[in-house]
């Protein structure tokens, strides 16, 4: 593993939560950091999530119970899951590998690894928000899983048992207790699970931009440019952009989220087994006289509704499809109908609907470490739909590996070599 030293130059490709977190962790250790992104910080995938920082996110989608759920999922019976069959058939290698990880041993390894990464990230988020002067954007009231029937609540028993095994603080609620917490939810929910080990923010994009501003105050550099290529030379890397003037670096960090797959294939011939969990969001004004105190996940409707600075943000579940495929409105329209059954919503805001792609590797763990056979090229990618909850921990772990520091968490489950070969 190639080690970095304070004072060396690092170029980070990508200014989402993960890229900015890597840049902050490295800058705080004395490296000269430049971040390249054509859209600027927090403008792509990191802009569109539900803003939840939750230890409950340790549950991967490919858990052992997936096999029993698979027939209904493939028949389109779950509003939180859709797929484009022709595209998905072309990703059959990814699909088979994804399903192969829906077994007990892989599930245990993934949940253990993600729990450590999320706990580390939560601690770093709290420290960084204070340092960046944006602690006011965070609240620590947890979030709610909502169930419209007793059968639905009982169907979530495996998840509750898993959270209990990892010591995640939760509390089961009946309809009366739920009403006490969220009095403006309509009485369509019989049960709820209050995940108390969770925080939320009122604008994920603004949190990333707050971190980016702090990075610049610490001496880091942000450049609005797309990396068009990398070339190696005796002392490191030249990172090429459309300006024609390369950025020289001793180390490069690739944190391009869903764009990482094509970048690695185009420039290094590497085939990254990555699929895309596409999702959308839409904003609404709260109905007059109503409030929502924390994010809620309607397990039947398959959406999350979260209070944001922009209003109430309605986020859809997962659509497996090509990264740049046109948006399909069916899932969003179904989510809005279900949300209006659950909460009085006002008019839509002037903000346009948003669509983004969450990059997912077959084991639902990110890739954090040095790229095989590419000296001083570091990977921080594949964070699926929980990059906001795992970004700061990723930055810390990557910086610790680069500088040869003791690791706060075990890097082995996140090693690039599990899917990339030299």
In words, what does this structure look like?
- The chain has 422 residues and is an alpha+beta fold.
- The chain has a domain of 235 residues: FAD/NAD(P)-binding domain (3-Layer(bba) Sandwich), CATH 3.50.50.60.
- Helices cover 33% and strands 26% of the residues.
- It has twelve helices and 23 strands.
- Strands 4, 6, 7, 8, 15, 16, 17, 18, 19, 20 and 21 form an eleven-stranded mixed sheet that branches. Strands 10-2-1-14-23-22 form a six-stranded mixed sheet, with helices on one face. Strands 3-9-5 form a three-stranded antiparallel sheet, with helices on one face.
- β16 and β17 form a beta hairpin.
- α1 runs parallel beside α9, α5 crosses α9 and α5 packs across α12.
- The model has no long low-confidence stretch (mean pLDDT 96).
How are the secondary structure elements laid out?
Elements: E1 9-13, H1 17-27, E2 32-36, E3 52-54, H2 66-74, E4 81-83, H3 85-90, H4 92-100, H5 104-132, E5 138-139, E6 143-147, H6 150-155, H7 157-165, E7 170-174, H8 175-181, E8 191-195, E9 198-201, H9 204-217, E10 221-223, E11 227-233, E12 236-241, E13 247-249, E14 251-254, H10 260-268, E15 275-286, E16 296-298, E17 303-308, E18 311-315, E19 318-320, H11 330-342, E20 345-348, E21 354-360, E22 367-370, E23 377-381, H12 387-403
Helix pairs in contact: 1-9, 1-12, 5-9, 5-12
